[in-house]
Specification:
Number of helices: 1
Strand order of the largest sheet: 1-2
Strand content: 35-45%
Shape: globular
Number of domains: 1
Number of strands: 4
Distance between the termini: 7 Å
């Protein structure tokens, strides 16, 4: 099961969120609001379901 990824809003680095989810769970998730630190620039990224960049990889 792939881990969700987002892109840092400051440096554009791809961040692994350490959240694994299948496609069905992702599609039915309604309140996905999280924060993740960028390992490259250390910016805190507050993100939601719409910010996940690898949705197409979920099975």
């Amino acid at each position: 099961m792939p881990k969700l990824q987002i892109q840092c809003k400051k440096c554009n680095h791809i961040i692994d969120t350490n959240i694994s989810m299948d496609k069905k769970s992702f599609e039915t998730e309604t309140s996905m609001n999280n924060s993740t630190n960028c390992p490259k620039c250390h910016t805190v990224n507050v993100w939601s379901k719409q910010d996940v960049i690898n949705q197409h990889e979920l099975h």
